[in-house]
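Final report, closing paragraph on structural work. Over the funding period we assembled a curated collection of sequence-structure pairs, and we close with a single example.
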Amino acid sequence: AFSDVTIAFLIKTNSNVGGKIIIKDANPEPEGGDWSIGINENGNISINFLKQSGNDAGYNNFNGQIAINDNVWHSVIITRESASGLVEIWIDGILDATDNNGPLGEIYNDSEINIGRHNIVNSDYFTGSLDNISIWGRILNNQEKQDYPSMEVIGTEVDLISYWNFNEGVYDLV
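Its predicted structure, as stored:
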């Protein structure tokens, strides 16, 4: 479960078919909600934070404006504020898009986090490269958002929930 959250990663793709990048989805929709981050057919980040019922219900479902499917590495940072439901997309340290229609309070469910595919339908695969994926239990400040591409996360930082640096493989394989 998380309240305020930052999900950050580096991405490189030239895909025009879309796909899920990181997702924690459940079907049927659980009381605690679910979320996903993807890329749409235009090369923009797409966001979905959803709680269908209860006092905290809401739905962030929107796309960024900056295309990132140019086969160049980009820093992507998604922040969600639990008190207001505000979600922001940051691309390469620049605020790209916002939406404040989202659910309030904690988002939680028992589903696994999936990287690069939709976990329920086992499809909607992401085509490209991902690196330095991190989930934080707070909203990174503006300086951290700008510094993320060179930020060396070691895994013991305060409020770091999860981190995948993909440094285990040989060449481009993990």
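DSSP finds one helix and eleven strands in the chain. Residues 142-147 form the longest helix (6 residues). We thank the funder for supporting this effort.
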